[in-house]
């Protein structure tokens, strides 16, 4: 794994970091929001709050790892754009989308976007100690708790004034769902990182609340997987198994209980996250990559960039818990698959969005509102730090 950690450091330094660095918009702020399959930059594309927050997280995390001053300058640049252009000063929270000059283009508020704002801002605070950024992250936490949470969990999509709307952006396959595993997972992820720097009792209670929702409502004890889409009462709205989210959650849930330092909830959580990882290893894993998902029993055989990245971390996390060599071999094999097929080796390339079962890339954007340096950049940073025995 030391050799793999060295390879991942090189991947960070020589491909991922340079690629995203060149997307800095010097004139209008933030980062260009779209690069097509042929690596053409659209400098007038919309700029998404999720993409900007993930870029903020990436450059901040890379600076924490490497102390690269250019990464710090890019993190400052991303932070300024979030603060000055994406943050709604009047009604609070982050817009879904702004235009290329930073004016509001889609003023909806989504819980998912607020969570990634917290995630990026918390990592930026770790990199810089910027109290203003921490205060904005705390404000976003309070906004989520005040506007997005009801008696059953967290709701998803709202208009600019925080009136509830149908959850269009995070629903899939033609079924509108009031609650999603995906949003709850990334609220938990964001709250975990915030709690690491701000030991607030209400935040801790919210993390425990989310962990209990995962255990009681989202985890399928029979199937050893996480259910994905729900109505208000946590009834599933469509049968989907999202293998990438399963393996990603298996380590993000562990990270949450480790940060909490609560032995009771830690033991319960780590038991079923181990079951999730075992299920993926035994039933889904192949050295030829992790397939994307199964919808109503039909499997999507494509290999998506983020699913592969999260599998490397998830399997390595399971190995650290068990010393079971099957997991370390799976982690290493998926990394080899990524190197062979998912990394875009063209001059100036990054990673393909996804490839088919034969490793052929789909003609999909290399950058757009969801395609970001968060999953692959984090995979590299996580593995490097875990091999070193530290945390970013």
TrEMBL record:
A molecular function GO annotation: cellobiose epimerase activity
Keyword Isomerase: yes
Superkingdom field: Bacteria
Key words of the record: Isomerase
Keyword DNA-binding: no
EC numbers, comma separated: 5.1.3.11
One GO process term, biological-process aspect: carbohydrate metabolic process
UniProt-listed Pfam families: GlcNAc_2-epim
Listed InterPro entries: 6-hairpin_glycosidase_sf, 6hp_glycosidase-like_sf, AGE/CE, Cellobiose_2_epim
SUPFAM superfamilies noted in UniProt: Six-hairpin glycosidases
Catalytically driven reaction(s): D-cellobiose = beta-D-glucosyl-(1->4)-D-mannopyranose
Annotated function: Catalyzes the reversible epimerization of cellobiose to 4-O-beta-D-glucopyranosyl-D-mannose (Glc-Man).
Family: Belongs to the cellobiose 2-epimerase family. Belongs to the N-acylglucosamine 2-epimerase family.
Protein name per UniProt: Cellobiose 2-epimerase
Taxonomic lineage from the root: Bacteria, Bacillati, Bacillota, Clostridia, Thermoanaerobacterales
């Amino acid at each position: 794994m030391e050799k793999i950690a060295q390879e991942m450091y090189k991947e960070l330094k020589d491909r991922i970091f340079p690629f995203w660095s060149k997307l800095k918009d010097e004139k209008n702020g933030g980062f260009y929001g779209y690069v097509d399959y042929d690596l053409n930059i659209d400098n007038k594309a919309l700029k998404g709050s999720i993409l900007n927050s993930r870029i903020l997280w990436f450059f901040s995390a890379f600076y924490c790892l490497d102390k690269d001053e250019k990464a710090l300058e890019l993190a400052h640049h991303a932070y300024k754009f979030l603060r000055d252009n994406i943050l709604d000063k009047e009604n609070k929270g982050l817009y879904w989308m702004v235009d290329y000059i930073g004016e509001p283009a889609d003023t909806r508020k989504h819980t998912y976007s607020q969570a990634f704002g917290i995630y990026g801002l918390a990592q930026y605070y770790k990199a810089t100690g910027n109290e203003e950024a921490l205060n904005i992250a705390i404000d976003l936490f309070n906004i989520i708790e005040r506007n997005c949470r009801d008696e059953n969990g967290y709701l998803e999509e709202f208009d600019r004034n925080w009136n509830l709307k149908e959850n269009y952006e995070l629903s899939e396959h033609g079924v509108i769902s009031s609650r999603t595993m995906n949003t709850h997972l990334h609220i938990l992820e964001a709250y975990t990182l915030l709690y690491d720097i701000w030991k607030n009792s209400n935040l801790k209670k919210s993390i425990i609340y989310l962990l209990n929702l995962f255990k009681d409502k989202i985890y399928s004890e029979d199937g050893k997987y996480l259910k994905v889409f729900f109505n208000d009462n946590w009834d599933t709205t469509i049968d989907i198994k999202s293998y990438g989210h399963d393996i990603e959650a298996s380590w993000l849930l562990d990270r949450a209980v480790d940060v909490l330092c609560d032995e009771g909830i830690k033991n319960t959580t780590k038991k079923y996250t181990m079951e999730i990882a075992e299920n993926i290893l035994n039933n889904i894993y192949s050295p030829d990559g992790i397939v994307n998902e199964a919808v109503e029993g039909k499997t999507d055989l494509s290999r998506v960039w983020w699913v592969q990245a999260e599998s490397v971390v998830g399997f390595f996390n399971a190995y650290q818990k068990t010393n079971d060599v099957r997991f370390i071999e799976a982690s290493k094999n998926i990394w080899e698959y990524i190197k062979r097929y998912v990394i875009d080796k063209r001059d100036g390339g990054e990673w393909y969005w996804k490839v088919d079962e034969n490793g052929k890339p789909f003609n999909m954007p290399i950058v757009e509102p969801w395609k970001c340096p968060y999953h692959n950049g984090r995979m590299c940073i996580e593995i490097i730090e875990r091999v070193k025995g530290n945390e970013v």
